[in-house]
Amino acid sequence: MADDSGAPVIMRHTACDHDTHAQVVCSSCGESLHHEDIDVRTGPGYPARLLDDPGIRARFDRNGRPEATADR
User: Fold this and answer.
1) For residues 21 and 33, what is the distance between their CA atoms, to the nearest angstrom?
2) What is the DSSP string of 2-15?
3) Are 51 and 60 in contact (CB under 8 A)?
4) Alpha-carbon torsion 48, 54, 58, 61, what sign?
């Protein structure tokens, strides 16, 4: 939402008293995560009853990525 005048809201981390921003990082290597670097797949806790649904199963290709649809 920031424009040429700057960010509309600034977060301050009270523990170190510095301005900061939210950042999503990999829990394994600490590198910043970007959507183009992420693959999504079902995990062991994904409900088996949903995997039996062809419509749900079709959302995941062989690489575990959600399949692109026209409305995305």
Assistant:
1) 14
2) -BTTB-S--EEETT
3) no
4) positive
Nearest 5°: the CA angle 15, 24, 9 is 60
Whether residue 60 is predicted with pLDDT greater than 80 in this model: the reply is no
- At 3, list the tokens: 């424009």
pLDDT tens-digit series, residues 18-32: 999 888 999 999 999
The proportion of the chain whose per-residue pLDDT surpasses 70, expressed as a percent, equals: 83
Question: Cβ contacts of residue 63 below 8 Å, gap of 6+?
Answer: 39, 41
Pair of tokens at residue 62: 């062989």
Locate 67 and state its tokens.
């399949």
The predicted pLDDT at position 72 comes to 41
